[in-house]
Amino acid sequence: MLDLEFVRGQFPAFAEPSLEGWAFFENAGGSYTCQPVIDRLTRFYHQRKVQPYAPYPASEAGGAEMDEARSRLAGLLGVETDELSFGPSTTQNTYVLAQAFRQRMMPGEAIVVTNQDHEANSGPWRRLADDGIEIREWKIDPETGHLDPAALEKLLDEKVRLVCFPHCSNVVGEINPVREITALAHAAGAWVCVDGVSYAPHGFPDVGELGCDIYLFSAYKTYGPHQGIMVMRRALGEALPNQAHFFNGDTLYKKFTPAGPDHAQVAASAGMVDYIEALAAHEGVAPREVAGLMHAHEVTLMQPLLDFLGNRNSVRLLGPRDAAHRAPTVAVALQGRQRRRRGRWRSTGSWQGAAISTRCARCRPWASIRRWACCGSPSCITPRSTRWKSSSRRSTGCCDAGGLTLPRGRYLSAGQQGKPPCQSHPPSSSGSAATCG
Ligand SMILES: Cc1ncc(COP(=O)(O)O)c(C=O)c1O
Predict the structure, then answer these.
(1) How many independent structural domains does the chain possess?
(2) Residue 357: inside a domain, yes or no?
(3) Pick from 201, 344, 412, 436: CA 20 to 30 A from residue 74's CA?
(4) Is the distance from the beta carbon of residue 428 to the nearest atom of ligand 1 less than 6 Å?
(5) How far is CA 384 from CA 172, 211, 228, 354, in A?
(6) Which residues are within 8 A (CB) of 308 and not within 5 positions of it... i.e. 6 or more apart?
(7) Could you tell me which residue ranges the Aminotransferase class V domain spans (predicted)?
(8) How does DSSP classify residue 163?
């Protein structure tokens, strides 16, 4: 098991009196920031907040720190330094990518998207249908949420140029076999774009080893600042047209970032690697091995919870029963138990020191559970956690938060039938659900 005291010591939030006693299960909203990121951000704003890369000390230091962030993150992810770039968010990164593909693709060519994805890796691609691009939907099993590679094979042919899917489901947490799926897509001549936003907080993957062409995640969920991080492998990056200022078109890491980056946040992102390296040194492993330690720790914490939930009659556990096959996002269908308060959703549900916010049903993962109809039950909740919760915290957090041990009427109802569509997230033309948040 990881040394949790050491891990918690890297996050000032754990020493923050106003947060004492709270367990947060909504990591979709982002993780708390580790100390090295905060230190770097503060230093940048104090000492280096000038135009970077000019020949004077503050500017040189700022530019060097931005370069350091890219090269150290790229090293951790197993890719070349110029294959890693920053953008304002993952959604904006995919939006820019979709424009690049739109310029390269011909009407009649196809893109495969899933209905397991967050809206970020779905909507921007689906909109290319307006340009005559065929959109094929790789559908999950409505009972389990599982995305079956065999079903993808049936969608692949010589027309498919790109296959988009998530590293793990942000509802049932199931980890998709990225290497296997990538091999299938590549064999059919298609590029591969993986949304790693739900996965990366639980361990930075070796993207080089996964083999995909694009890998996206959001630093604000991996203990960093509010940035989207994109790996674009060279072969694809060189094949796609420039989306940035014309003078940046020859530089791979600038080519898909239309505007100037947030210098301070890019620089501060090196702090995420400081944290991983400090943890690696403390645990006596190489930095790339930290992901495995995190996963092992999470499996140990999660398996008893999965066993507990899996044996309840009042709820149905969604997704794999084996913790090794999922990220610690736990979804349960509340069998026949849902609560509507004065006909409306609560904006925030909180009780017993656990916080899960509920926003509009179309935006949230559990909305897709509802539309998957995977439960015959309209309600489900998806608490997520990151690994620094201890077992004792888990028992006062997750289990209670599952609505399982709470007093009657105090569980959080996170599903609702007949809810009017969210205006900002209309359903796709196929009626399928992408999720966001
Ligand atoms: C799985 C997944 N993908 C993508 C996103 C979008 O990320 P961003 O907010 O950086 O656009 C989210 C946000 O919660 C997410 O959960």
Answers:
(1) 2
(2) yes
(3) 436
(4) no
(5) 10, 27, 20, 11
(6) 399, 404
(7) 24-337
(8) E
In the predicted model, is pLDDT for residue 414 greater than 90?
A: no
268 in the same domain as 245: yes
User: Does the beta carbon of 93 lie inside 6 Å of ligand 1?
Assistant: no
Residues 254 and 392 in one domain: no
Calculate how far, in angstroms, residue 326's C-alpha sits from the geometric centre of ligand 1: 18
Residue recorded with tokens 């939907």: 137
What letter represents residue 34's amino acid? C
Do the Cβ atoms of 325 and 174 come closer than 8 Å? yes
- pLDDT at position 369 over 90: no
118 lies in the same domain as 241: yes
Residue to mutate, 198, 218, 227, ligand 1, most ligand atoms under 8 Å from C-beta: 218
Beta bridge partners of 114: 138
Determine whether the shortest distance from the Cβ of 119 to ligand 1 is under 6 A.
no
Domain range for residue 367?
4-32+288-401
Asked if 160 and 304 sit in the same domain, the reply is no
User: Do 202 and 136 share a structural domain?
Assistant: yes
Together in a domain, 54 and 164: yes
435: buried, middle or exposed (CB in 10 Å: 19+, 13-18, 0-12)? buried
CA dihedral 303, 171, 230, 228 (to 10 degrees): -100
Pair type for strands 228-232 and 214-218: antiparallel
Whether residue 167 has its Cβ less than 6 Å from ligand 1: no
